[in-house]
Amino acid sequence: MRRTNYDTMATYKKRGYKPKTQAEKTEALEDNSTTAEVFNTLDESASRTEEWAVKNQNYIIGAVAVIALVALSYLGYNKFVAEPKASLAMNDMFQAQQYFEQAVNGVAAKDSLYTLSLNGGEGKFGMLDIINEYGGTPAADLATYYAGMAYYNLNDYQNTVKYLSDFSGDDLLLAPIANGRIGDAFVQLNQPEDALSYYEKAASMNENGFTTPMYLFKAGNVALTLGKTEAALEHFNTIKETYPTSSQAANIEVFIGQAQASL
Question: Transmembrane residues, as ranges (predicted)?
């Protein structure tokens, strides 16, 4: 049977096949020539790359060194600067914490103790000093929380909002309490809309059986005073259905009734 050109090509491409006809020899030469050109191009590209690398090796080595230096500097900063600074800040804050806790626990002269907590005493730092001296450390962030709480107890509601708004901690209890206290401060400042917003935010953070029903209850009452009856009813019903064992749930039916009567 007569072979087609396709059959000839297929046979030619088998390993070890030697071209027989003039046409096959010509085609083989062309293919070899094309292959050689490809390899020559690759060799030329590789050579140019090597030449560039040799010519610019100082820059390459320098860039790698810079990257390594940045990484080592970061690790060194954390180990030899940031960590010791954070530890020192916590130590310096100890006395201010003691003043604050004594005030919370009902020791006499609460106002004086809260003031000492803020400004320091006996040659020790207060919370405001910690914030200024150790900004960016966990201690400074915690001092911001303490400062906001101290200002609230001193009836300084503007500073309460200022400092607690700067508190960035995500502690399961401190974060909602901070936002809830901002809500309390706005109530005292006669800004119920802002108070409602912060109570609702506090209630939604790290939902639990302690802070969540407490701030839902506050949110419901503020919503009632603002005429937002449906929102109030929703908050009260959530307490009833989701937190039935909370202290806020004890008389919640009364508040649900008030909200329903206002619809």
Answer: 59-77
